[in-house]
Structure formats: structure tokens, C-alpha cells
Design goal:
The structure holds two protein chains of two kinds. Helices cover about 40% and strands about 10% of the residues of chain A. By secondary structure, chain A is α/β, with parallel strands linked by helices. In chain A, the strands form two sheets. Chain A has a four-stranded parallel beta sheet with strand order 3-2-1-4, with helices on both faces. In chain A, helix 2 packs parallel to helix 6, helix 13 runs antiparallel to helix 14 and helix 14 packs antiparallel against helix 15. The radius of gyration of chain A is 22 Å and the shape is globular. Chain B is of the alpha/beta class. Chain B has 25 helices and 35 strands. In chain B, a hairpin with an 8-residue loop joins strand 10 and strand 11. In chain B, helix 10 packs across helix 19, helix 16 crosses helix 17 and helix 16 runs parallel beside helix 18. The relative contact order of chain B is 0.12. At the A-B interface, helix 13, helix 14 and helix 15 of A face strand 4, helix 2 and helix 15 of B.
Chain lengths: ~425, ~900
């Protein structure tokens, strides 16, 4: 099977240099697009390919690009930003791409920038990804030296400046509007939409923010076409997906597979299944802020629509596996403590509600839970919903809690009844 | 402008509102009690607190709906919402529950209690029972200076404080720090808040995080305060206030909303300058001095009036010196007593000339004097010679809003509603409309100016004349103007000409008549058939224009008369030593037969007086002031003063009635004085419309100064007598010194406090406005006395020559300080703490030439006196010019600008 995203990634870890990337076919898409395609044609191509955003929300990428005002009257400068602030717990797919093949991202970004006629591009990188930072800096410098960035790219008349921006390190920056605020040097709190970033984004100008993995698909779509891209997938949504697995499995890791591969295949064929002596109990399929899937869901296809139908979200496609020897209360408590700490503090339900759930879970875990706690937790999962809070952080935080209360209710109640953690 | 109303549905009932509002604004304006925190009519919506949650439905068939925030949702035609929806109601109660998790149980000891928006919203949502059993987060507090107390544990993180301080008021030294449930609002370190508007935090904050630190020193619960509508006395803008008293001491000043004037905010001088009313320097008894060398002795009221009568009957002419800080009624009563030909405006010759000219320009010229609300809407502004932040602080706050007007189109083009404050500011970024500031040195407003120009007053005037020349061929030409100044003048002219509401601001601060003429020329040149320009003149004191409208010659003329013809003199609320140099005042007073001083506080003049009568301050009497817009506004007595203190006009009425009728009669009331004033000086005719007369009643009742929860009435005086005394009578107004009276909404000029059932905080103001944020029901208080003439004014000629430096002299120009230049506010302990030290400001090249470093001492020889002063720099002060702070600390009056010698000590 074809693995366009990871084909250049070497097991020794060193990324291909620009020359090596070109030798493997890199930057061909960019040169051809600049020669033969209009910006609108690139957007149309990406639209046709059914590429959905790989950051977690799954919004159709081409459609997002089409919201940017084009033409002579459009405001300038326009911006294109790669959201490389990969901080969703359990997620490490972008790290693989950033460290393994930085030029792939850069080429994808230049193509995207060309499509929306952006003047400046930023890679907003998570602080902790030090190796990726070095490699991206080197790759950007190489791209400039080879006239893929800067003034008059490949003699096309199109110019683009690209900068690497390393963030100060908060989960909230993964939210695209908080990212924009952070990039502007302001507090990383989100903005309300409308207006959308395509209309008023970075510095109030038209801006597109996409995930790293999303951009990495673009050169391949331009090279091979929309139909080819669609054919890679097992579903109507286009392309491959980098899936990951963590937890107590035999071979935790990341693999590029057709979009729509089942949970079972990823878990058992690639991750080797749960470690000996342990039994599979559940999995959070798309990073911490998604709902649990159980044994009965193992044959669900890992694409946006199918996972949603099963009551969860594809999210980032990196799974966290829970075995039968791991306390679900402890697992959820760990996640909620993370979310509470990462709350930006802007809106009341998230700022106050998340610490409350974390404190309750801690009490339950320590054997100090009370029966009324179950209702309080349920109420939070209802009230910290989309539209009730200012952004999606809190609703995301409630996803694992809500499904844990649904599927593992008895475990919670045992803690409360027995005044201890039965797993310890 | 006709706006087509839109109709929308609340709980399936149709309602109509103006277009362009968000749903919270619309619902509140319709009278619904929808709780909220982070929205503020002046600050717009940000959607942070989530308190205003309502249900929105797609159409009539949608039975489920979704929760949205009312403040972030536009009210459009056909919108369907529910406020009472059970889920929305439960969610709103949860928001309070979340806020209460960490909120300390401080209510009994918290200053905000009784006027706390959080208390009101908690009750409104119905949340009661605490389920959260874990420890609360706490903070350490900061010392933010003498005005604002800091108690962070009470914070509900509504972000209003930082949005007001930074976004609205342009402050830099206050911010929000940290994240999640530990966000902290304060400074990077302890220290006095630098913004001149920091006091508004105590009203903007919906809880007790920021409270009035001066009130804390003599704390009283809101419901125990006796209040009355008042007007600020510390500058000429005339912001409306509410004075609150208890036990005959003034406890605090709070904002009184007037949509045309101050809106929701006050400056710190206005909010905290009140403590002079309680000062130990107050004159509380009449005093009679037997001879010029003896000490004054306390006299009874009867003796004082007798003495006054004696002096008036003695035979010498009696001169009356009025005051720009005394009310219209006081000045008029004095004028009536001594006769118009013996009445003098109690200000310097220069100030009299300049103020009179400014008034004439407004009355005869085509440009209109703007209200502060009008200033906020100006889309191009030219400031000529005024350090607005220090002389008229609330004008500076209005200008900070005005520079958002022209560039608001950036947001509207992107279809961002104006109330979506964060989105507007993001789209507009740092773009601002045109504001040009031409002054003698840097000012705090410079950070929002498109361009600044700093030079000596004559050069500022020349720039003004050049702008007028660029606007109109008929305006006088400025010869020999350097190219870059000509180019600047042209840029200013282009910006003003291209605006829909251009505004010119000037005033008497520089002491330059040429400047005022130049400003008038610019404004006249801008007035065309389809556009009126606005012209705002700053004058120094709360009744400067009122006094000028009454008329009379200057104090210099009075002194000349006194020196040539021995007279008695009645000095009304005026320290003459602040109006002329010492020698001149001494000579006049020494020549006087008898000196009568009517004033609140001891000063150099009262120390020379033979008869001293205790005058009521603004808080202890009634009267009318005319602000710099020409708006006549009424202030009412809040406290019944002890002893013999009464309004100045009452002291002056007694002898009038004694003389007229030959027997002592009880003094007439305010209405009678106003009637006489309006009929004798027709320019004041409209003052009779400011407020209903003293005999006004609503369903037979007066309007109570005390809230219905006022406590301690009988206990307060029990140590004197257990018999309950009759409440003092108020012959001057429909207000009573009592809890009893009409509980509903009085006419706007008589509103003694804002309160409504369930709304104990200042947010109750919503119930008094037709549309929240707009005018009060029945119109905003005050009557404009001056309107522009339809016909134009001829252009003023006499362009001054360019400023020329002198080899061993400097042109000394006046500099102003919000804390320090104004006579009364400096007696407040908090304000006196913030007075700058004495200094003289020099250009750094001049300092270098003199061989002085900043901080070094120089000797200034000025108008016959020598001063030893440390040198301070002031950005932009030109070479050859030096700045002296007006009347700061012990610096005496100097008639500036004037030439002086400076030498290193």
C-alpha cells in the first residue's frame, strides 16, 4: 500500500535534506503548481480530494481555504499558519512528520499559501519539540537558499516569507484563535467566531490555520490528483492517516494506514495487542478529549463519520488504550487534572468547572468520594458543552469523563462505596 | 436619523428594539432581568462570564433550542429566544455556583455589600446551596495607592477591570496575569495606579475586589448613606456626581450618569477630591476680627449678620469680588448686593480677557460647543495648547474613544458589530483616527496622537492660523512659516476637512489670546453649509463660564479701584492670592476699609479678613454651575451642615432682605434667586428648566435623600436627646432629609441615587435609561445656555510673530497637574500624597548650557520674585521655554506666560 506521508521517513531518524527530498520527488508539486495552476485551481483540487483537517476537528480543508477573500481588493498581508502545537495528550503523529520529513510540511504550506495568496507563513511549534525546531530551522533555510521561499519563488512572481515560531508552551495554543493571539504576543485566550480567521485572523487579516498532517497531504494531492487521493482511503473521506497507539500494548507507535482502517487492525496487527497478562478494556481513539470505545466497537472504521456514529470522535487518530489493570477513575482524573491546569481562565464554566471535576475525581480515587459526586460529574458533562463555554477545550475535556461515567459507572461507584481504589 | 426597529421574540412574545444591538442589551433595555457580568454598556461584549445564557430557537417548531450567550448574539429580525427556559435558567444558576466555589464568605465585612452586582445576580439566578466542599483558591493583595483597595480573593474574573483600564482608558500599569483558576488582576508589583481614571475600577468591578479606599477610612454601608445629585467642582467639565454623607461628614463621591457629559466614568480628581469638605481647615463658625492685629473671634450668626449690616451701612463703597468656583446664585447675589458696577470677576485680567473671548466666540460664531458625548463621536480632532489629561481629564478619556470612530469602518466592512468589542479591536489593531496635539510640551494623550507639535504658545497659535489658512482663502495668512510646519498645517487641514464631525479644542491654559483666536479661525473655516464643526474651550474652574456670563471686570481692576478709593470688599469663595501677585493683593487689602470673606476653607485671604462667614460647600448647599459646554447644571445639598454654615447666596440674601425691607426676614429660597437671575440676565433664562422647583411633588410626596433601608435614625442623636428631632427642612428643593417620600423614579435632575428592586448595585442605572447606555428617562440633566450662531464670525487677524528665544531669559509657560493645580482637591489626603514636588521644566539642551543636570537646582527670577527650584526634563519643551507648575504646593500665583531669568545655583 502507498504511504505518501511517511515514505521519506528513515528508521535512523535523520530527515532527508532538501536535495534528498527533491531526489525523492519533492518540490515537484510546487514547481508544477506555480507553472500550471491558478491559486483557485489548487484550492479546487484540495476540495475535490475530500481532505479533512487532521488536527482533530475534521473540517474540509479546501472549503476552509475557499473562505479567504481573493482578488485585487482582498486585504493584505494574508497569512498561512501550520498548527504544530501538538499537545493533545496521547498525540505524537505531527512530531513524527516534523522530525522525519520537514520539507514535506514546508512544501505543503507553500502550496497552501499560494492557493490563498498568503504573503507570510508561520509554523507555530510546541515548545517541547526541540528536535523538530532545529530540523525545521534548517529546512526553512535550505528552502530559502533554493528559491522555494522568499521573493519570486521559482521565477513565478509569487513571494512568501516563512518563519518558525516556537511557542511558550500551553495546550490552549492548539486552539486556532488562541494560537493567533499567542502569535500576536497576547494572552493565549480564544476569540469568538464570527468573525472567522479567514476574514479577520492574524493581526485582523485573512488567515488560514491548518494542522501539520493536513498540510503534509497537499503536495501529494497536487502531484497525483484528487481521485488518487480518494482511492487511498477505505471511505468517502480522502487519503491516508497516521494512526498512533499508546498505553500498555506490545508495540506502541505510529503507522500510516488508509483512512478508515478499523480499530482492531491498528490495535492488533500493528500495535500487537494488549501486553501479556492484561486484557483490553477500552480505548480513547483520538487523543484525550474523545469518548471511550469498547470491545464491541473494535470493528469501527477509524474515519470521521464512522467514529462519530459509534459515539466518539476520530480527533487526532492517536489512541490511548486502557487495560483491565488500570483504574478508569485514575485515568480520567489524570486527564481532567491536565485539562483543568491548561484552561486559559477566560470563561467561567471551564475555569471553575474543570478544577471541580478534577478535585472530585481525586476525592473518589482517594476513597473520599460521596454519592452526590456522581450527579455533580454528570451535570458538568452536560453543562460544559459546546456553546456553553467559550471554546472547545472544556467540551473536549468532558468527552472522556462522560463516556467513562457511562461505560464504567460501576467502577466509580465501587470507589465511593468501598471508600478506596479497588485497583490499588 | 430614523432607524427601522426590528422585532424579535422572547418566550414567544414579540418585542421591538433598535437594530444593531446584541440580545443582552436588547433584553435589558426592554426591562428584563437577565443577569450578566462581563458586558458593560461602555465596554461592549466579550462573552467571557457566560452568565447571560439564554435559549435560542431556529423557528417556532424548534422545541429544543440551544444555549447561546445573549451578549454575543445579535438581535435580528425574527430572532426567537427564551429567557425562562429551564435549562438556561439552570445553567445561569450554575454559573453563579461556579463563581461561588472560590468566592470568600466576606459579605458581612466586604465594602461592596449592599451595592454588589454579584450579590444581586446571585439572588436573581436563584442559586443558594453550597455543594463545593474543597479548599478555595486565594491570592495576596497589592497596595495600589491611596484610591483603590485590592482584595483579590473576591474576584470572579469578569475581566472588566483590565478592559476598562487598558482598552478604554489607555492605562499601561495594570494587567491580568497567570491562567486557569489562578488568573490575577493587578500590577506587576505593588505601587500606585498611574491612570487618572483608576477610581472607576471601584464601580466597574462587580464585586469587592476594587473598592474606594478613601471610603474605607470612614466606611458606611450604601443603604446608610444620605445622597443627593451633585456636580464635580474640580474642573470645568461639570461631571455629574452623587455625594453621600452620614453623621454630617461627606463619605464619598460616586458617578452620576449623564449621557451627555460624563457617562459612566469620573476622573480620580473628581472622585477623590471631596475630602476638603471634611478638612480641619474648614471655617465652621462666623469670625469677627476686632482689629487688624488681633485674632478673629467666634461670633454668633446674629452677630455676624449684624456686623455685615454695619459694614454695608458704613458709607464707603462696597466692592464685590466673585469667584469662578462659586455658584451662579452666589455670584449673582453678590452682584445684586453691591450693584453691577461694583461687581468684579474674581480672576486675573488675563484670564478674564481670555474666558470672555472664548465665550464670545461660542455665542457669536458658527461652531458649536460640544458635550463630552459629542467629543467621543468626533472623527477628527485638533488640540491647540491644552494638556487635556491634566486640565480636563474626562475630556482626555472622551478623546481616547473619539480616535476609534474614523477607523470603525474597518470592522463594519468585515460585518463585525460594534458591540463585539474584542473582534472590533482585533480587526482595527492599532489604527486610529486623526488626532493632532499641539502643546508646549509632551502630554499623556500623545500616545494616541497621529502627530504632535511642541513649541511656545505663539508658535502654536501660528500653526493654528496656518491650518485655518489652508482651509479657507479668507483666513489671514501666516508669513514665514517653516516648510515642515506648513506641511503639518496642511495635513491637519486635510484631516479636519475630510471629517464628518471635526473638533477643535483650545482654552485658556497657555494664557494666550492668539491661541484662542487661531482655534476660532480653524473652527469657523470648517463650518460649511452641510457641516458644523465643534469648538471646545477649556476653562479652569467649575463655574468659569458661569461667572463670565454674569460679567464684570477683572480682579486687577478691582484692586486698582480699591487702592485709589478706600472701599470695603466682599470676597466670595476666592483666595485672592491665587489670582494676582502678593504685592498687588497686599496693597489692595491693606487699603480696604473692611474685608469680608465668605468661604469654606482658611486661606491667605481669610487670614486678612475682618469678618469671615462660613460658606457651604457643594455638598452642603444648592446651586448652579455652568460648565465649559455652556451647560447649566444643578447641584443639591447632600448633608445638613453643622453650626452656621449656609450657602454663600444665603449669607448675601440676608442683608439684601434686611436692606430692602428693613427687617430680618428668613432668606428667600433657591427658586427665588434663580427667578431673579433669569429675569435680570436673560442669558440664564433656561436655568429655570434645569429641575422642577422646590414645591414640586410626586403624588404629594417629596423625594427622599435617604434610602428606605437607612438605619440608625433615632439612635444617632440619642446621646443628645431621646426625643426624635424633626428632620431638617429643605426650602430649596423637592428633596427631603428623610427616608419618607416618593419611592419611584423622580425627574432625572433630581435622582439622588440609582436603585431598583433586585438591583442594588450601580447596574440599577439600566432601569433609568430608555435604552441601556443611552439617555436617562426624561432627558439628561442640564440646560445648554450657549448655542452657535447661524451666521459666521469674521476671521480674527493679528497672527503673532514667531517665537524668538532670548539670550539670557526664558519664556516661562504654565504647566498643569491633575493632582496639584486645583485648589480644593489638594486637601484630600490621598491626592496630597500624589502631588509632584516643585520643579522647573527645561529643555535638555538648555539645561546643559546652564551646566545643570536634572535634579540640580536653579534660581528663577520672575516678576520681581526669586525662586529656587530643581530642574526636571519635560519631553518636547522647546529651547528658550521653561515650564512652571501652576500654584503647585507653595508656589504663589504668577501671571504666565512671562519672561524670567534662570541661573544655576
Amino acid at each position: 500500500m502507498e504511504r505518501p506521508l511517511t515514505k521519506n521517513i528513515r528508521s535512523d531518524g535523520e530527515p532527508p535534506s532538501l536535495k534528498e527530498y527533491e531526489h525523492a520527488g519533492g518540490y515537484e508539486a510546487l514547481r508544477r503548481a506555480l507553472r500550471e495552476l491558478t491559486p483557485q485551481a489548487v484550492t479546487a483540487l484540495v476540495k475535490d480530494s475530500n481532505l479533512n483537517g487532521r488536527g482533530g476537528a475534521g473540517f474540509p480543508t479546501g472549503l476552509k481555504w475557499s473562505f479567504v477573500p481573493m482578488g485585487d481588493d482582498a486585504p493584505h498581508p494574508k497569512y498561512l499558519i501550520a498548527n504544530a502545537d501538538e499537545m493533545e495528550p496521547g498525540t505524537f503523529k505531527d512530531r513524527l512528520l516534523l522530525e522525519g520529513d520537514p520539507h514535506q510540511l514546508i512544501e505543503g504550506m507553500i502550496l497552501g499559501a499560494y492557493a490563498i495568496q498568503a504573503d507570510v507563513a508561520y509554523i507555530f511549534l510546541r515548545w517541547a519539540y526541540r528536535v523538530a525546531a532545529e530540523r525545521l530551522e534548517r529546512a526553512i533555510a535550505e528552502a530559502y537558499a533554493n528559491n522555494y521561499l522568499g521573493h519570486n519563488i521559482c521565477g513565478s512572481g509569487y513571494s512568501l516569507e516563512m518563519y518558525l515560531h516556537v511557542s511558550a508552551g500551553r495546550y490552549m495554543c492548539g486552539e486556532e484563535t488562541a494560537l493567533l493571539n499567542a502569535l500576536e504576543g497576547k494572552r493565549a485566550t480564544p476569540r469568538s467566531k464570527p468573525p472567522f480567521p479567514a476574514v479577520s485572523g492574524l493581526w485582523g487579516k485573512p488567515t488560514i490555520v491548518n494542522n501539520v498532517e493536513t498540510f503534509c497531504n497537499v503536495p501529494h494531492i497536487v502531484n497525483r490528483g484528487a481521485e488518487w487521493f480518494k482511492s487511498l482511503s477505505h471511505t468517502g473521506e480522502g487519503g491516508t492517516k497516521i494512526y498512533g497507539v499508546s498505553g500498555k500494548v506490545k508495540y506502541p507507535g505510529a503507522w500510516e494506514l488508509p483512512l478508515g482502517t478499523t480499530v482492531r487492525e491498528i490495535l492488533e496487527e500493528h500495535a500487537g495487542g494488549v501486553r501479556d497478562g492484561l486484557k483490553f478494556r477500552g480505548v480513547i481513539p483520538g487523543g484525550a478529549s474523545t469518548e471511550f470505545l469498547l470491545e464491541e466497537h473494535l470493528d469501527v472504521k477509524m474515519d470521521f463519520a464512522s467514529v462519530q456514529k459509534a459515539g466518539s470522535r476520530l480527533g487526532t487518530g492517536t489512541m490511548i488504550v486502557m487495560d483491565d489493570q488500570t483504574c478508569p477513575v485514575g485515568l480520567v482524573h489524570n486527564l481532567e487534572r491536565f485539562f483543568a491546569q491548561e484552561s486559559c481562565g477566560w470563561c467561567t464554566p471551564c475555569r471553575e468547572g474543570l478544577p471541580w471535576t478534577a478535585k472530585i475525581l481525586q476525592a473518589i480515587e482517594e476513597g473520599a468520594g460521596q454519592p452526590i459526586d456522581m450527579q455533580r460529574l454528570m451535570l458538568h458533562t452536560r453543562f460544559l458543552g459546546p456553546g456553553h463555554t467559550f471554546c472547545a477545550l472544556a467540551p473536549g475535556a468532558m468527552e472522556p469523563l462522560q463516556s467513562a461515567l457511562q461505560y464504567f459507572r460501576e467502577d466509580f461507584e465501587r470507589h465511593i462505596r468501598e471508600k478506596r481504589c479497588p485497583w490499588k | 436619523m430614523e432607524m427601522k426597529m426590528i422585532s424579535f421574540y422572547i418566550d414567544n412574545q414579540p418585542y421591538a428594539v433598535n437594530p444593531g444591538l446584541n440580545l443582552l442589551h436588547a433584553c435589558l433595555s426592554l426591562g428584563f432581568n437577565l443577569p450578566y457580568f462581563c458586558w458593560h454598556p461602555a465596554l461592549g461584549s466579550v462573552g467571557a462570564c457566560r452568565q447571560c445564557a439564554i435559549k435560542q430557537f431556529k423557528d417556532e417548531n424548534d422545541k429544543h433550542g440551544k444555549i447561546v450567550m445573549a451578549c454575543m448574539t445579535p438581535a435580528t429580525e425574527g430572532t426567537r429566544i427564551s429567557i425562562n427556559d429551564p435549562e438556561a435558567h439552570h445553567f445561569r444558576a450554575s454559573v453563579i455556583e461556579w463563581l461561588m466555589m472560590n468566592h470568600p464568605h466576606d459579605c458581612p465585612v466586604c465594602d461592596e455589600g449592599g451595592e454588589c452586582h454579584l450579590q444581586d445576580m446571585t439572588v436573581m439566578t436563584g442559586h443558594t446551596y453550597r455543594e463545593f466542599r474543597f479548599p478555595k483558591r486565594t491570592f495576596t493583595n497589592q497596595n495600589l495607592g491611596p484610591f483603590v483597595n485590592h482584595e483579590m480573593n473576591r474576584c470572579i474574573e469578569c475581566y472588566r477591570c483590565v478592559r476598562f483600564y487598558r482598552d478604554y482608558a489607555g492605562g499601561r500599569d495594570f494587567d491580568v496575569f497567570a491562567a486557569h483558576d489562578h488568573v490575577y488582576f493587578g500590577r506587576h508589583e505593588d505601587g500606585t495606579l498611574e491612570s487618572e481614571f483608576s477610581g472607576n475600577l471601584v464601580e466597574v468591578c462587580p464585586t469587592g475586589v476594587f473598592t474606594d479606599k478613601t471610603l474605607k477610612k470612614h466606611y458606611t454601608r450604601k443603604w446608610d448613606l444620605q445622597t443627593a445629585p451633585s456636580v464635580c467642582v474640580h474642573c470645568a467639565l461639570g461631571c455629574n456626581t452623587i455625594a453621600g454623607e452620614r453623621y454630617s461628614t461627606l463619605r464619598r463621591i460616586r458617578n452620576r450618569f449623564n449621557h451627555e457629559v460624563n457617562g459612566y466614568f469620573l476622573c480620580d480628581r473628581g472622585r477623590y477630591g471631596y475630602e476638603f469638605v471634611n478638612s480641619e481647615k474648614r471655617i465652621r463658625q462666623s469670625l469677627i476680627r476686632r482689629s487688624r492685629d488681633s485674632q478673629p473671634e467666634v461670633a454668633s450668626r446674629h452677630s455676624a449678620i449684624e456686623k455685615l449690616g454695619e459694614i454695608l451701612a458704613e458709607g464707603s463703597p462696597v466692592i464685590g469680588i466673585g469667584s469662578p468656583r462659586a455658584s451662579l446664585e452666589a455670584n449673582f447675589a453678590l452682584r445684586k448686593l453691591v450693584g453691577p458696577e461694583h461687581f468684579f470677576q474674581g480672576v486675573s485680567e488675563r484670564e478674564t480677557r481670555l474666558t470672555t473671548l472664548a465665550l464670545k466666540i461660542l455665542q457669536e460664531g458658527p461652531a458649536r460647543a460640544p458635550s463630552l458625548q459629542d467629543v467621543q463621536l468626533a472623527d477628527a480632532v485638533f488640540v491647540l495648547g491644552e494638556d487635556v489629561t491634566n486640565v480636563a481629564p474626562m475630556l482626555a478619556l472622551a478623546l481616547r474613544q473619539s480616535v476609534r470612530r474614523e477607523v470603525m469602518t474597518i470592522a463594519t466592512r468585515l460585518r463585525i458589530p460594534e458591540w463585539d468589542d474584542a473582534a472590533v479591536r482585533e480587526a482595527v489593531q492599532q489604527e486610529r483616527g486623526p488626532l493632532f496635539i499641539a502643546t508646549t510640551g509632551s502630554t499623556k494623550l500623545d500616545d494616541i496622537a497621529r502627530e504632535t507639535y511642541r513649541s511656545a504658545p505663539d508658535d502654536l497659535a501660528r500653526l493654528g492660523f496656518a491650518v485655518a489658512q489652508a482651509l479657507s482663502g479668507d483666513a489671514p495668512k501666516v508669513a514665514d512659516l517653516p516648510d515642515d510646519e506648513r506641511a503639518l498645517a496642511n495635513r491637519i487641514a486635510v484631516a479636519l476637512k475630510g471629517a464628518e464631525r471635526p473638533l477643535v479644542i483650545s482654552g485658556v491654559s497657555c494664557g494666550s489670546e492668539a491661541l484662542i483666536r487661531a482655534a476660532a479661525n480653524v473652527a469657523s473655516a470648517l463650518c460649511t453649509d452641510d457641516r458644523r464643526a465643534e469648538l471646545c474651550f477649556n476653562v479652569p474652574e467649575c463655574n468659569s463660564f458661569g461667572l463670565a456670563l454674569i460679567g464684570g471686570e477683572s480682579i486687577n481692576s478691582a484692586f486698582e479701584r480699591m487702592v485709589h478709593e478706600p472701599s470695603s470688599v466682599i470676597v466670595l469663595e476666592n483666595d485672592l492670592y491665587r489670582r494676582a501677585n502678593r504685592a498687588m493683593v497686599d496693597a489692595a487689602l491693606d487699603a480696604a476699609k473692611y474685608i469680608i470673606a465668605i468661604d469654606h476653607l482658611e486661606n491667605a485671604t481669610t487670614r486678612k479678613a475682618d469678618l469671615i462667614l462660613p460658606a457651604a460647600t457643594f455638598a452642603e448647599g444648592d446651586g448652579t454651575f455652568v460648565n465649559n459646554e455652556g451647560r447649566a447644571q444643578r447641584f443639591y445639598q447632600a448633608l445638613d451642615p453643622k453650626a452656621d454654615i449656609q450657602e454663600s447666596w444665603r449669607w448675601l440674601q440676608d442683608p439684601i432682605s434686611t436692606i430692602d425691607r428693613g427687617e430680618a426676614e428668613p432668606g428667600s429660597n433657591l427658586d427665588e434667586v434663580d427667578l431673579a437671575l433669569a429675569s435680570e440676565l436673560p442669558v440664564f433664562a433656561s436655568i429655570l428648566k434645569i429641575a422642577p422647583p422646590a414645591n414640586f411633588r410626586i403624588v404629594g410626596q417629596k423625594i427622599p435623600r435617604q434610602p428606605h433601608r437607612y438605619s440608625g435614625r433615632t439612635a444617632m442623636l440619642a446621646q443628645l436627646s431621646v426625643h426624635e428631632p424633626k428632620p431638617p427642612d429643605d426650602p430649596d428643593s423637592p428633596l427631603s432629609f428623610s427616608m419618607e417620600g416618593y419611592e419611584g423614579e423622580p425627574p432625572p435632575s433630581l435622582i439622588p441615587r440609582f436603585w431598583a428592586p433586585g438591583w442594588n448595585s450601580i447596574q440599577s442605572l439600566n432601569k433609568f435609561q430608555s435604552e441601556v447606555g443611552g439617555s436617562l428617562h426624561g432627558g439628561d440633566p442640564g440646560q445648554r445656555l450657549i448655542e452657535a450662531a447661524r451666521t459666521g464670525l469674521k476671521f480674527f487677524g493679528e497672527v503673532p510673530h514667531a517665537f524668538e528665544r532670548r539670550s539670557n531669559e526664558w519664556l516661562i509657560v504654565p504647566l498643569y497637574h491633575i493632582f496639584g493645580s486645583e485648589e480644593l482637591s489638594v486637601l484630600s489626603p490621598g491626592i496630597s500624597e500624589r502631588l509632584p514636588n516643585l520643579y522647573i521644566a527645561l529643555n535638555d539642551h538648555d539645561a546643559a548650557r546652564l551646566g545643570v543636570k536634572y535634579g540640580g537646582q536653579v534660581e528663577l527670577d520672575l516678576e520681581g520674585s526669586t525662586y529656587s527650584l530643581p530642574v526636571r526634563g519635560r519631553l518636547g519643551i522647546p529651547e528658550g521655554v521653561a515650564g512652571l507648575p501652576v500654584c503647585l504646593r507653595e508656589l504663589p500665583f504668577v501671571d504666565l506666560p512671562a519672561w524670567g531669568r534662570i541661573a544655576r545655583m
